[in-house]
Amino acid sequence: MTSVLDDVRILEVGGALGGALGGWCGKLLADMGAAVIKVEPPDGDETRSYPPFLDDEPHKNRSLYFWHYNSNKRSVTLDMESESGRDLFMQLAAQSDVIIDSCPPRHLDSLGIGYDAVSRATPDIIVAAISPFGQDAPYSDYATTDLTALAFGGPVWSCGYDDHTLPPVRGGGNQAYHTACHFAAIGILTALVHRQFTGEGQFIDVNMHAAQNVTTEGAVYHWLVAGDTVQRQTGRHSSPTPTPEVQMLCGDGRYVNIGFPARTEEQWFHLLAWLDEHGLVGDLSQYLTPPSREAIANRDPVAIRQMNEVMAAVSELCMANTAYDIFVRAQNLGFQWGIIYSPEDTLEDRHFKERGMQAPVAHPELDAEFIYVGAPYDFKATPWAIKRRPPLLGEHNEAIYAEIGVTPSKLAALRDAGVV
Questions:
Q1: How far is CA 40 from CA 8, 23, 75, 376, in A?
Q2: How many domains does one find in the chain?
Q3: pLDDT at residue 377 in the model
């Protein structure tokens, strides 16, 4: 399959956070077809040392963490602190369309290979700098982690349980890093479209803290517009006022998240018919329509009573069935209900398998094949695929440096000097 990104060449360079903070952005674009070259220091990207490792054997080429973030990429090693390394970087940049920079703010500028220098030599270059607080914004020199970014940026305030004696809950999986990377990827794609019409490159300053702040759903807007503070609620949207509990325990010990049981008149009658199969309609037959969200939000006593009766009946329905059976029946009826899975269960679910969430990837160097997590999206004009396993450290030095005129003997000398 061809992709609209097949002709796009990207350099990915990063600091201590680069493995996730820039690595996810590079992976998103590489899996959509862009040619992404990961520029690593001669001893390798820091995340090559992150566990877990294949067979619990620590090695720079066996980190499963590194594998996850670097499918479809190629790797070159380069000491950009050296003069020769900076010259090589500028030559690589001259043949590239995009640079993803997740080094500390202004670090590349301090080496003389930042956007100003690169754009003078390559005016149509696009540089996306991803950093915790932006290049020149307040706190730009502060250190951060995924945890502190989520807490300081705001999302953690909205995440947790109805029981507020428990602390907020931070979502796992480097969500803060990923949020910033999605903004960066969208910015890069937009800049590429702009360049098609104008021939202009540009600098994109991605502030991870700001990215968290504008993705707090309604929390920030509630505060800015109405002065309201949203409250954390178990498995549902945070809200200034409490909303009905929506997680239901099923007969097999699993939970389903039902949202509100029925949102339209058609769904209401489907729900009544389903409840009637189990003899659970009871007094619900007196209601011709489901209670409206507005009535519930305004604490209308009739709507509240109806809602409580519905929830009680649905709870009994769930206890009389397995979570999977509830999930399948609800989906077939058009309800917005979902089963609550562990990560392992999610990957093994046959619906996710059918959608390609298990992506087999060959590792010829190990004479083995491993299952990777599949696409987070389904674009028809820009198909997603893992065509190549993550690169071994410096695996593509010879081929890529040859493209800029570095002979094998020169490359050997650079290697002996610790430049590559």
A1: 20, 12, 7, 26
A2: 2
A3: 81
CA 67 – CA 53 distance, rounded (Å):
10
Whole-number Cα distances in Å, 55 to 58, 173, 363, 370: 9, 21, 15, 13
SS3 335: coil
Range of the domain at 293: 247-340
Report the percentage of the chain scoring pLDDT > 90: 70
Tokens standing for residue 237: 């949207």
Q: Are residues 310 and 365 in the same domain?
A: no
Helix ranges restricted to H, 205-348 = 208-213, 219-221, 265-277, 293-297, 301-319, 323-332, 343-348
pLDDT tens digits for range 380-416: 778 899 999 999 999 999 999 999 999 999 999 999 9
CA atoms of 246 and 255, how far apart (whole Å)? 10
Contacts 24+ apart (CB under 8 A), 403-411: 403/95, 404/88, 404/91, 404/92, 404/94, 404/95, 405/91, 406/88
Q: What's the CA gap between 212 and 151, in Å, rounded?
A: 9
In Å, what is the CA distance from 110 to each residue of 17, 81, 98, 115, 347?
A: 18, 10, 20, 11, 44
For the stretch 304-342, pLDDT in tens is 888 888 889 999 999 999 999 999 999 999 898 999 998
Sign of CA dihedral 233, 239, 242, 245: negative
From the list 301, 293, 299, 283, the residue with the least C-alpha distance to 262 is 293
> What is the pLDDT confidence band of residue 191, given thresholds at 50, 70 and 90?
very high
Q: Which residue has the tokens 């590239």?
A: 96
Higher pLDDT, 207 or 15: 207
- Residue 15: pLDDT above 70? no
Alpha helices in 122-258 (DSSP H): 146-153, 175-198, 208-213, 219-221
Q: Residues 187, 304: one domain?
A: no
d(CA 221, CA 244): 22
> Can you tell me the distance from the alpha carbon of 189 to that of 379, in angstroms, rounded to the nearest whole number?
14
Domain boundary residue, one of 340, 374, 393: 340
Q: What is the pLDDT of residue 19?
A: 65
pLDDT, tens digit, for every residue of 27-65? 999 999 999 999 999 999 999 999 999 999 999 999 999
Q: Classify residue 149 as left (phi > 0), alpha (psi -120 to 50) or beta.
A: alpha
How far is 12 from 15, CA to CA, in rounded Å? 11
Residue 68: φ, ψ to 5°:
-60, -40
